[in-house]
Design brief:
about 270 residues, alpha+beta, Peroxisomal Thiolase, Chain A, domain 1, 9 helices, 8 strands, about 20% strand, Thiolase-like, acyltransferase activity, Ketoacyl_synth_N, Beta-ketoacyl synthase-like N-terminal domain-containing protein
């Protein structure tokens, strides 16, 4: 089996109410910063026009906030970068509203909420807001959604030799859906994966598929990340972002992200020096 090529990470972005931004998250993951108290309110992504910004659901606001931050950090034109958006559930509050309304009074269903209920709503807002005509994908793999999205982005980057934006996001469970899935809060992450090292590279990424990995994701190490380990399915990204937070030149232990009970995506990062 051929070894996948080394790829390069640019523009890490992170948002959750207690760590609202990559600067805050990086400091906390290094043990140099504290959680925000009180927690931040949801972001207001400038990619959208003011009216759309007000109407956008939390998932769209989060996804676009980190997507824009990653593109800015990578110093790349948003309109030209292919993207992969991944979410285990999409917008659970809208799904709950849709189910409740259809069960009670279907004629009262809001067209706007219906529009925002589709799984590719966030990536649709992104491509429209940025004028991006490059390839865009919306991925879902339930509890393994971050790993699946990262694998999709890495394969696309390696195959096409072009940078790819990866965005992962999920939101809390609402209503009856809490009986079938446990998602407790807002968390979104993003980064750009590039085929070559640039001045914006923060780490190199070696990646492979392994069949002998444990069935659970690598656990977060820092106290700050540990507070988020059960927040929603995007918590699988925490060890990767902890590794990205380390000092330049640092090498990290392998990170395993399960893709199924029998297969995992194994990552090895080397911080850029």
């Amino acid at each position: 089996m051929n070894t996948p090529p080394t790829l390069y990470i640019e523009g890490p972005a992170f948002w959750t109410p207690t760590l609202p931004g990559w600067d805050a998250a990086r400091a906390a993951f290094r043990g140099e910063g504290a959680l925000a108290d009180p927690p931040a309110k949801r972001p207001s992504p400038q990619v959208l026009a003011p009216a759309e910004r007000r109407r956008a659901p939390d998932t769209v606001a989060l996804a676009l906030e980190v997507a824009a931050a990653a593109i800015a950090g990578a110093d790349r034109p948003a309109a030209d970068v292919p993207c992969v958006f991944t979410s285990a559930h999409g917008d659970l509050s809208i799904n709950d509203y849709m189910c409740s309304t259809l069960a009670g009074d279907p004629k009262m269903l809001s067209p706007t909420k219906f529009h925002n209920s589709v799984h590719n709503a966030a990536v649709g807002y992104w491509t429209i807001g940025t004028g991006c005509m490059a390839a865009s994908n919306a991925v879902s793999a339930y509890g393994h959604s971050f790993a699946a999205g990262l694998l999709e982005a890495a394969v696309q980057c390696a195959a096409d030799q072009t940078p790819v934006l990866l965005v992962g996001y999920d939101a809390p469970t609402v209503g009856a859906l809490a009986s079938v899935t446990d998602s407790r809060g807002l968390l979104a992450v993003a980064l750009v994966i590039a085929p070559e090292r640039t001045a914006r590279t923060v780490a190199s990424l070696d990646w492979s598929l392994v069949g002998d990995a444990p069935g659970t994701a690598t656990a977060p190490r820092s106290a700050a990340a540990a507070t988020l380990k059960d927040i929603n399915p995007m918590a699988d990204a925490l060890p990767l972002f902890e590794a990205l937070a380390q000092a330049p030149g640092s090498a990290n232990a392998p990170i395993d992200l399960p893709l199924s009970a029998a297969l995992a995506l194994r990552l090895r990062l080397q911080a850029a020096g």
